[in-house]
Amino acid sequence: MKVITRTMFCFLIACLSAWQGPLFAQLSNHDDNLPACRYGWESCNHSNLTEAESREVAVSVHQGNIADCRMGRISCDRSQLTAPEAIALAVVEHQRNVSDCINTMASCDYSALTKLEVRLVATTDRTRNYSHCVDGWGPCDRSKLSSQEARAVALADHQRNSSACKNGTESCNYSKLTASEATVLVVAEQRRNSNACKSGYGYCDSSRLTAAEARPIAAETSVIPR
């Protein structure tokens, strides 16, 4: 029975490590190379791929190119698309253009719209304009309103102004109130001022109090000990 000396054992370990080192490095490089090829990175080395991995990478790259084309990215390579894929892409791009036109985006190409789509975009623009005019925000072109829409917008403007005057906001235009609305507003303001003077809370203008309102306030004030 042969006895392995310590020297011989160390020599065997050194030889095994020297053999395994390049193998581990090769496996590590292979593991890094596969994802690099999947994502189309420059570090990809196709010669290091197995046949199965090459097929997988080809499928992944092709699907990635389809996605790039559908997203409108510069990296899209149309020459790599099949005929059905090119047709599907044309449909997607047309639908995107219709959406851009409906949303009034600069990328809209009106010349690529069908007659039906042109009418759809025009109807959407008119509806959006009417909504902006009624709500009092956003770009409003009153010249594009029909007579019925113009009346509805005028009513909305009046109601919005009346509400602003009731709430005492800066946008109130008293000159646009009707006589009855102005009267109601005066009565409401008189009541508010009287309550403020009586309670001591809120802005009080004693000069606007009527004699009937001023007497109880003056009497109450006179009995308060100083």
Give a concise summary:
With 226 residues, this protein is mainly alpha-helical.
Number of discrete domains: 3
**Into which percentage range does the β-strand content fall?**
under 5%
> Helical proportion?
55-70%
**SS-derived structural category:** mainly alpha
Shape from CA axes? elongated
Task: State the end-to-end CA separation.
Answer: 122 Å
Query: What is the number of helices?
Result: 7
| Succession of helices and strands | HHHHHHH
Largest sheet: none
Q: Mean pLDDT, nearest integer?
A: 84
Radius of gyration: 40 Å
How many extended strands? 0
| Low-confidence spans | 19-27
Task: Detail the topology: elements first, then pairings.
Layout: H1 6-38, H2 51-70, H3 83-102, H4 115-135, H5 147-167, H6 179-199, H7 211-222
